[in-house]
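Hello again, I could really use a second opinion on something today. My current little project is about how a certain protein chain folds up. You're getting the sequence in one-letter code plus the fold written as C-alpha cells. Here's the protein in full, and shout if anything looks odd to you:
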Amino acid sequence: MNRYRHYYGFNRVLLLILDITLIAFAFKLSNMLRYGSFEFEYQYNIFFVLFGLVWWIVSGFTNFIVRVDSILPIDRRLGNLINVFLMHALILASCIVVFNLEQLSRLLLLYTYLSTAFLIGLSRLVLHMADRYFTDSDMAHTRYVIVGSGPAAVSLQQTLSNNDEIGTKFMGFFDDEVDPSSPHQVLGSIEDMKDYCLQHSIDEVYYAKPIIDSEQIEELTEFANDNFIYLRLVPDFSAIVKKEVNMYFYHNIPMLSVRNEPLELASNRIVKRIFDVVFSLAVILLIFPILFPIIALLIKLESKGPVFFKQLRPGKKNRLFVCYKFRTMRVNNNTELQATKNDPRITRFGAFMRKTSLDELPQFFNVLLGDMSVVGPRPNLVSQLDQYSKVISKYKTRHFVTPGITGYAQVSGYRGETKEVHLMEKRVEYDVMYMANWSLMMDMKIIFLTVWNMIKGEKNAY
C-alpha cells in the first residue's frame, strides 16, 4: 500500500544488511570447515564481494528480499527460495568464468551455499513468525473497521489481513443493511460505528459500499477529520465490473482499466524490446553460424526441399506475419494441419529438431524484425485462430501482445497437439496469466526453463 512505501524501502535495506551479514557468517563458517581458519585469502575476499553483489541483484529483481509476511503456503515460499538460489548460482557461475576464478575450492563453494541457504531460510522463517505474532497481537499499531458487509467489504478485509506488511488489527464490520446470509458478524449500524471508533481508538475507516450516498460519505468524512481518523474509500464496483480491474489517474481523473497488463506501459515495452534485440543478436551471432551449416546439411540429406519453412501466422492484434522455421517435414500441401504424434510427414531429423526446439532457431530473425518476442504467447496457425476464437472467450486476448518463440504455457507443460478444446483453453489461461504478471525476471525464468526442457526433451514435442 502506498502509505507504507517508505517502510518498504527501509525494510528492504534492513533485510539486505541482514542477508549480507548472514552471507559473511556463512563464508567464515565454510572457511573454518574447509581450511580450519576464519581468515579469508585474498581471492575469497573478492569472491565474497561478488557473491553478495549477485545476491543483492537477484533478490531485488525477484522481490524475495522484502517478503517476510507472505501469505503463500510453505511449499511456495520454499520454491521461491530455491528459485532465487538457482538463479544466483547460474549468474555466479558465469561470473566465475568471466573473472577467471576457477581456482576457487568447489568444496568451499558447496559449504557456502548450503550454510547460506540454511541461514537465510531460517531468518525468513523467524521474521515471518515474528510478523504474524505482531500483527495478531494487541501491539498492532493500526486498528481499522470496515463500513459495509457485502462481498466487496469481505474481500477487502481478507486482502488487508493477508497482505498488509505492517501490523494491523481488524475490529469489525458496520452496516445499515445487513445481508442475513453473510457469515461475518456485523457489530452495528454506521451510526454505531462512530461511538465504537471513539471508544476503541480506531485509526482507519474503510468505506466499502457503492458510492451513491454522497451525504453519508460527506458526513463520515467530517467525522473522521474531527477525530483524527483516516477515511479511505474503497468503491464497490461489483454491480458494473465482474472481473479484476486496474485503477490509475490521468492528471486528476480516476480511470479503470478492465485488464491488468504491465506491457501496457511504454517503459515496459521498451525494456522488453531492448532485451529481445540483445538476446536475439547474441543467438544469431554466436549460435546460429555454428549450427546452421550442420542443420541445413542434415535437412537436405534426408529429404528434398528448402532448408527453411515459411508460414503465415497471426501476431499482435491478429496481424499476419511470415514465421520462419527450419523445415521438419517432407514437402506437402497440408501445412495448416497441426502435427500429430507419429506424423508421417515429419522426417527423423525433423522429429529431433522438434523435440529439442532447434527448428525454431530462425525465429530469432522474426524477433529482430519485430514480429515476435523471445517470450510471449506462441503464434498458432491461422486455422486455429478462426476455430478457437469462436469457442474460447479469452483466445483473442492473448493477441494483445507480441507472440513469442517460447511462452509460459509451453514451459508449464502445455505444448504439442491440442486434440481437445480444454487443452487449448489451458494454453490460453497461461498466456493470459503471463500477460497479467509480466516482468523481465519472468521472461528470464521462462527462457531458463525452455533451455532446460530442450536438454531433457519433452514428450509432447512432436
Q: What stands out?
A: Residues 1-8, 64-72 have pLDDT under 50 and may be disordered. Residues 266-456 form one domain. The two ends are 47 Å apart (CA to CA). The first strand starts at residue 142 and ends at 147.
